[in-house]
Amino acid sequence: MNILIIEDEARIARRIERLLRAILRDAITALHHCDSLGAGQVFIQQHPIDLLFLDLNLNGEDGCEVLEAVVAESFHTIIISAYRDQALRAFEYGVLDFVPKPFSEERLAQACQRVRERKGASRAMRYLAIRKKGRRVLVPVEEVLYIQGAGVYTELHLKDGTTAIHNKTLEQLQQLLPEHYERIHKSYLASMHEAREIVIEPGSKYSLRLQNEVCIPIGRTRYKDLKVKWFT
Which of 59, 82, 85, 111 could disulfide-link to 97, CB 3.0 to 4.6 Å? Predict the structure, then answer.
């Protein structure tokens, strides 16, 4: 696991690094530290990372600028900050956890465990970022009808009939999206707010019909749970 810490206080950065090495041990491939917003952004552009630990106040600069820039990236982000009032805003950009300062080793270990278990602390994510005509565009999550896995990427199918590529995998998005985005198939997440009915097809095949009449497959092993949870 390649980890980046963006923290302007050297003492706190050293403590985070020491604790992470004790918590994650051999799971760490490389661990880097940047002490400014600009240096962190450059590092992210030039190096692949798996996990980002980010402070929200970096010598007066707003760390949420980083969140806006990396919301589409494939890695997870954990905030470590004294600014508890910024937690909701951070979760809107899809962070995996918010660890308030001052923090204990146990709380940091809990955040790391969420990465291992792929369990998000919140489902308050409100935006997904896509590339459109060379620009980064934030799409409200509620505009997404369903998401199809495409290897290390995902394909977003939007209410306006367009599609867009996102850099996070289906598994990563499943951790972050609101609870009504249900994993209905190994290759599909669907907004159950847009679900109309389950269609039973010959040969014990199932599909989910959405309000716009589009049908997407339901995995056989997921059919019963899906029916009980959403259609009873």
Answer: 111
Spatial distance between the Cα atoms of 185 and 221, rounded to a whole number of angstroms: 9
Whole-prediction pTM? 0.69
Question: Is the domain covering 143-230 a CATH 3.40.120.10 domain?
Answer: no
Cα–Cα distance for residue pair 64/132, rounded to 1 Å: 21
Q: What are the φ/ψ torsions at residue 114 (nearest 5 degrees)?
A: -65, -35
Distance CA 106, CA 211 (A): 45
- What mean pLDDT is reported for the chain? 88
Assigned architecture for domain 2-117: 3-Layer(aba) Sandwich (3.40)
Nearest 5°: phi and psi at 72?
Answer: -90, -10
Q: Is the peptide bond before 48 cis (omega within 30 degrees of 0)?
A: no
